[in-house]
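Replying to the earlier thread about multi-chain prediction with a worked example.

Input:
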Amino acid sequence: MRKRVVVTGIGWVTPLGHDIETVWKRLIAGDSGIAPTTHFDAKTFPTTFAAEVKKDFDFKTIAGASYEKHKKAGRNTHYGMAAAMNAWKMSGLDKAKLDPYQVGIYLGAGEGGLDFPNFTHVALAAWPENSPPGSTLNIKTWGEIALKTFDPMTEVEQEPYMTISHIANEFNARGPSLNCLTACAASTQAIGEAAEIIRSGDADVMISGGSHTMIHPFGVTGFNRLTALSTLNDNPKGACRPFDAGRGGFVLGEGGGIVILESLEHAQARGATILGEIAGYGSSADAFRVTDQHPEGRGAIVAIREALKDAEMKPQDIQYINAHGTGTKENDSTETYAIKAVFDEIQGGAKAVPISSIKSMMGHLIAAAGAVELITCILAIRDNIIPPTANYSQFDPDCDLDYVPNVARKVKVDTAMSNSFGFGGQNDTLIVKRFVA
Amino acid sequence: MRRVVISGLGSISPHGVGTQPFWNALLEGKSSVTPLTKFDPGAFDSRVGGQIPPFKTADHVPKSYRKATKIMARDIELAVVAADLAIRDAKLISKGLTEATPAETLQAQGWFKFDPTRMGCNIGAGLICVDLDELTAAMDQCRGPSDTLDLAKWGRSDDPSKTSGMENLTPLWLLKYLPNMLACHVSIIHDTQGPSNTITCGQASAGLALAEAARTIQRGHADMALVGGCESKINPMALMRLSLLHRLTTKGNDSPVSSCRPYDKAAEGTVLAEGGAVLVIEEYEHAKKRGATIYAEVVGLGMSASASLSVIEPDETGEAPAMALKKALKSAGITANQVGLVIPPGLGVPRWDKSDAKAINMVFGGTQATITPMRGGVGDCGAGAQALDLVAASLALKEQTIPPTINCTDPIDGLNVNQDRVNKQLDYAVVLATALGGQNSAVVLKKIS
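Result:
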């Protein structure tokens, strides 16, 4: 029989706060973490708001004695590291005797943003003003200024492997060390693959999840150019409207989510508190278009079905679906279609399964989204309560399921599913269940 | 347990487009490092590079998809080309190929039409560098005092009849730079709908991608996968970053071909490069049944992390990479004595080379294993590096020959580096990668009998 994989620690840094219980209470209350952008002056951008981690997040305090060696890391890494420190502590592994080569890391952590002021300054300084179209940068001039301007560590910290490098160093985790970047599906995929690494015996413990921020001028530029973001600038809190007829784009969020995964035998041997069990994981590719999801959710359906198969479950075993639910026209109707394709066979049809999107409250954490959503599923099982989909007011015939509108719901939850669909077509689904020995 | 074999190779490197020019260059002991010509490196102390000779991405993309090449950064182009070459080498009939040649024609030639839902795609990627010209041209009209960017003008033009700065960028601009776009474009072109991932662990990415995809096949979640990694560091941003970290050669500008010297006592830095490879891996029975050419079997996988903040300081003990090697040998069920060839990860950066050498001596010291550094003629192509090494190891096993080493005439730490081509009975080859960020991956390949 294959090894069972359990969760023994959770931690997150989110737009709604950065400790487990505060954020959870706010999610249940339907609070919003979305507000005007403060990380840079976005007042003329098509979108002027975001779901930012708030100013009371203080990495220095959380990191304590370790702060010095991680201080040059990017904001993205600080979110992941803080979440990892809290999850690690919760798991009790800080007091356990560990084989460092059996402790691994698998994150879906994003790249760091460009050093914006220096990057733009060096580029403009090497570009003759009002050059005609088709001009090119004078790379010699650029290089001369660049070498005097850029900071080596600030540059290398942008590499997408730096978050796992810092975490490996902090916890002396010398086992398998991986990072994947499959856009919005990254941390769901990371957790699924981390569980597989434990099942294969290559590690007893995996630090998994993700962290990311794209709330910087070029990140918002990229998404604004794609017209993927909500532009409801007069009403930031109401801007992310998953499954609502009035939805018009997602809201960019940032943060980190970390889960500590362990083989059941390792967790039990040290008497750890078990928060849940990873029951199933499914992964697929749309292979359709880089700009759009497959209209009939081809890849999404496969990911959901594969996860059920992996968990040896039937659709009726799922009591809550934490949706990808970005609040874009396309995602929410496609996801609804995919859920119906799999769940319509159960008694009462797909409508019988409560579905919600916490992106309505904390925005879209991109690579980190799947991790905070899996943590949400674990807490929903712990407390038998489903957080709502906020901002739901108007029925859309293409989204005709039970989205737990606006008010949290007390209901028995033993098994929950979390979906993540990445830009470009990579799809991942996880199933987590209440741990029963 | 389901066995996994390598049944297709596609590489793109400074040695050329295709696996044959790559392998020929290795056998000839040729370096393809030249003075950097893609842009003017005059401001930098390192001015050599491993640049890929000119090629047209469109030649490797079906007509109906050629428009998409406009939103492919260089790294994505490399993956698209390498995947096309690998698919053809494996004689696979994919959606991308049947647009030009009917499936029936290919089938008549013995090619195989695969089940898209059973084919995965796992291609490692790096941090894709921005196109400075495109972005700066867009910023020019938003110039503030002392060459700063006026963000207000970037977001919205003062003159309502004119576009804002950001509107000068193509709407799909962001998609050029998402690392997962290597795998996404490849999966779309060839219609691979199985598990797809993008591992971003620098030089160790391709081995980690191979390990993950092989496990997926072993578990029965797929029958085949495209795996590998590609990256281009031939970009001013990458040259700036690696120069600031003092990782590049500064003395080799006058003799490019001998400038990259992995494990040589005279090494003083690596060379900026671009390249990578995509390999087809496949369940053994599946490959046998369709009459595939099998290069090698994937029999051992090992992973570890150095856990030092290795961007600043390598793990000088070599202990973590040695553990990756030991785990790979253990999973292959073999001892170090059975290994005939080890391809080490060295790039010619002295302190990092030393760490690898320690690891290799720890595991292979006193054995007959030939140590053959393969990057002396190419340089550092990041996520593409280990993919090229995997191609080289596959061919060495298939051809039962080990290419000569170049630019390592006086090896450090007494490494058993071969100077000349070695022809010997070769049963197992090991490919080790140690990434700048401290991630290590080791792969054991076996000769197929």
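Chain A touches chain B through 97 residues (CB under 8 Å).

Feel free to reuse this layout for your own posts.
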